[in-house]
Amino acid sequence: MRGYLGQLSAIVWKDLVVELRTKERILSMGGFTVLVGVLFNYGLDRSVVRPQDLAAGWIWVTIVFTGVLGLGRTFEMERSEGALRGVLMSPVPRDAIFLAKVLSNFVLTMLAAILVFAIFGLFFDLSFGSHPLVLLAVVATGTLGFTSLGTLYSGVTAGTTMGDTLLPILVFPLLVPMVIYGVTATAGLFAGLPVSEVSGNLRMLMAFALITTFAGAGLFRFIVEE
């Protein structure tokens, strides 16, 4: 177990260090988040609708689009530099490689999600409710399921000529449950509902995250071997 966790953490550390050095995904995801927030801010007629009524949906849509922007580059560096073959020839289990990629993508997407909440909170003067830890659990659980699914399909599209264009087409239809339960839970917490009112949505997000993570770990070996 220690060896497995050591291999997993080594890949996660390598990916995060590379991202911090290149800053390609960090800058693109951060810039996209700020631009979307600005567009929503100036594209809304506040005399017709309150921003608070739409904030939960906008936040999750922004997280999804920002996350896909980063997920499309999950295996790009390894493939372009021929490093992926070396990784696959190493004794590291395929599921450890997948889980490491999921964790590194999760960290980057969660940083983007925090920025999304900060931007929308600033522009729309949002109240995040009286249960910030529950809200964090909702966002983290949904993001984990999203990044697991996105990482798996990023492996599928990385070897195609369409690449980033094909990824959202494959992933978006499968994200409908996550968006529905995530938006419902977030809107409820924004409205000040008790935790018991959103616990069902949180459990569904947990189920979505577990299914996508374990299914992705099992299927990843077949994708990379192709």
Can you walk me through this structure?
Helix content is 81%, strand content 0%. The radius of gyration is 18 Å and the shape is globular. It is built from 10 helices and no strands. It has 226 residues and is an all-alpha fold. The protein starts with a helix and ends with a helix. Helix 1 (2-22) crosses helix 6, helix 3 (51-71) packs antiparallel against helix 6 (94-124) and helix 9 packs antiparallel against helix 10 (195-225).
Could you estimate the helical fraction of the residues in percent? Answer: over 70%
User: What oligomeric state best describes the polypeptide chains here?
Assistant: single chain
Query: By helix and strand content, what is the structural category?
Result: mainly alpha
Largest sheet: none
Total strands: the figure is: 0
Q: Helix and strand succession?
A: HHHHHHHHHH
Describe the secondary-structure layout.
Blueprint: H1 2-22, H2 24-42, H3 51-71, H4 76-80, H5 83-89, H6 94-124, H7 132-157, H8 166-171, H9 176-190, H10 195-225
Q: What does this entry show, briefly?
A:
By secondary structure, this protein is mainly α. The protein contains ten helices and no strands.
